[in-house]
Write a structure and sequence with these properties.
The complex is a heterodimer of chains A (321) and B (170).
Chain A: H1 7-11, H2 14-18, E1 20-33, H3 36-40, E2 54-69, E3 72-85, E4 92-104, E5 109-122, E6 130-142, E7 148-160, E8 168-180, E9 189-201, E10 208-222, E11 225-238, E12 261-278, E13 281-298, E14 301-320
Antiparallel strand pairs in A: 1-2, 1-14, 2-3, 3-4, 4-5, 5-6, 6-7, 7-8, 8-9, 9-10, 10-11, 11-12, 12-13, 13-14
Chain B: H1 3-18, H2 27-33, H3 36-44, H4 46-51, H5 54-69, H6 72-87, H7 90-105, H8 108-123, H9 126-142
Helix pairs in contact in B: 1-5, 2-5
The chains are: A mainly beta (321), B mainly alpha (170).
Chain lengths: 321, 170
């Protein structure tokens, strides 16, 4: 019994212990898209894109272990999901593991550094499948009133091993900035983001420079529902185009003519609504709609190649444990 | 076991807790130098106290010297903790005991890490400690980390992630 009386001494630091432990989510739902992913991923040539409509039943689990005190700590997380294609469509699987270290530079400036490994396999679009490893560092400012800024730098190597003719590897470097406007806890707030990404691939036609801008309205309380809406614009500039895309069928431009290039632009509007059914159990409805435009040609003579609209919806049940 | 006996054991054990076993031979002197709170408690249960073996009395009283060697602030804190412990319900005490049991089963290295962490934690004002933990949580959650999204590839991110599924997020 003696040791039990040590409890007050040992456990009064329960604030520290509270931040130690396991948590997880189990999600299940249905998704429909006319292949949004095809049109928002870099490195996929128009010839490889498809307007395939796809329905799926998705189940996913995420597990997280964190060990945090006021000075920082570690977070480990694992995610696995399976989207089973319906009506003859193939499966999409994703497995991801990551570990992060969190630390405080000051009481307002925090740092997160981590590594991740991911396996993504899309049976309906093998070109989009990849295995990736990456590392990232994010410097974050957390203000008194919910305001803050994240400045993140990440590198990632992806192995697109399922591309039919020429499997390729690509190295991506991303600089990302997000600003969160002041708000009270659990109150709605705006955030804006900007990102720049450079991708260098084995296959030069998949080299790209991408820019993304976005604005979101978060934690929007609508009666008993919680909503989120966002608008994003993205531009991908490819230094070269593949022979299949070039009207002349050649990678070599005629004398006096610049190198043919491709520019993709995507606009996306997204919205989601969530409702707590009971403690830990949420129903979420999400939808997206957007437009994708791809132009080909040489500088000053760009021609519109592909112009398509896309949309998607999903409904999921999320159980947090 | 009667309430009085329980209380007495509680007192004896809390004394033993904070004062690892020492050899001593000046029990009576130690008794006189015990903090007033302990004297009051032990004095109230004098009949039970008298039934204790002399060696145990000596040990407990000697530990009082160690108690007195502690800084006044430390004694105050420990005394408050003991009172908190007493104020707990049986369930709370059981939960704490179980948690302590788990703590004891941890590898020595992990126990030391938690104790160090606890010590650092204690050195900061409680409000700041809590605030820092909240900031770490906010930092994680606002960018979708630790949001528990098992379907990062789904449309809309279903959480705090980027709206574009293959956006330039993590």
């Amino acid at each position: 019994m003696l040791r039990y009386l040590m409890l007050p001494a040992v456990l009064l630091g329960s604030g520290t212990v509270v931040a130690d432990g396991w948590s997880g989510n189990l999600q299940t739902g249905v998704t429909y898209t006319n292949n949004l992913e095809v049109q928002s991923s870099t490195g996929i040539a128009p010839a490889e894109q498809t307007s395939l409509n796809r329905s799926g039943a998705e189940t996913g689990i995420s597990l997280q272990r964190q060990s945090l005190d006021y000075t920082g700590g570690y977070v480990w997380e694992g995610v696995a999901s399976l989207n089973q294609g319906l009506a003859g469509r193939k499966d999409i699987t994703r497995v991801r593991g990551a570990a992060y270290r969190l630390s405080a530079l000051t009481t307002n400036w925090l740092v997160r550094s981590g590594v991740e490994a991911e396996h993504y396999q899309n049976g309906d679009l093998p070109t989009g499948s990849y295995r990736g490893v990456g590392a990232e560092t994010t410097l974050g400012y957390v203000g008194e009133t919910g305001a803050g800024t994240d400045i993140g730098l990440s590198v990632k190597r992806e192995d697109h091993w399922q591309v039919a003719d020429t499997p390729y590897k690509v190295d991506k470097q991303t600089l990302k900035l997000v600003h969160y406007f002041p708000h009270q806890p659990r109150q709605a707030y705006w955030s804006v983001e900007g990102a720049y990404q450079q991708a260098q691939a084995d296959d030069d036609s998949r080299d790209a420079a991408s820019t993304l801008l976005g604005i979101q309205y978060n934690q929007w309380a609508i009666g008993t529902l919680t909503g989120q809406v966002g608008l994003q614009w993205r531009q991908d500039d490819y230094g070269q185009i593949s022979p299949g895309e070039n009207p002349s069928g050649s990678m070599t431009p005629p004398a006096g003519v610049g190198q043919p290039s491709r520019q993709d632009k995507t606009y996306l509007i997204s919205a989601s609504l969530g409702k707590q059914i009971r403690k830990g159990l949420h129903l979420r409805l999400s939808s997206n709609a957007g437009q994708y435009t791809s132009t080909l040609g040489v500088a000053g003579q760009m021609q519109e190649g592909t112009n398509a609209r896309f949309h998607g919806v999903s409904a999921t049940l999320d159980w947090a444990f | 076991m009667g309430n009085k006996r329980k209380l007495l054991w509680g007192c004896l054990l809390v004394v033993s807790l904070y004062f690892p076993l020492y050899a001593a031979d000046a029990a009576k002197t130690a008794w006189k130098t015990l903090p007033h709170e302990l004297q009051t408690l032990l004095g109230e249960y004098q009949p039970e106290w008298d039934k204790l073996p002399v060696t145990q009395q000596q040990t407990l009283l000697t530990n009082g010297q160690h108690w007195l060697a502690l800084p006044e602030e430390r004694r105050t804190v420990l005394w408050q903790r003991f009172q908190q412990w007493q104020a707990m319900s049986q369930n709370q005490q059981t939960t704490m005991q179980q948690a302590y049991g788990r703590f004891q089963q941890l590898p020595a290295e992990e126990r030391q890490r938690l104790m160090d962490s606890h010590q650092r934690f204690q050195q900061m004002p409680v409000q700041i400690q809590q605030q820092m933990l909240e900031r770490f949580n906010a930092f994680q959650q606002r960018s979708g980390y630790g949001a528990g999204n098992a379907m990062p590839g789904s449309m809309g991110g279903m959480g705090n992630g980027p709206a574009m599924p293959d956006g330039m997020g993590h």
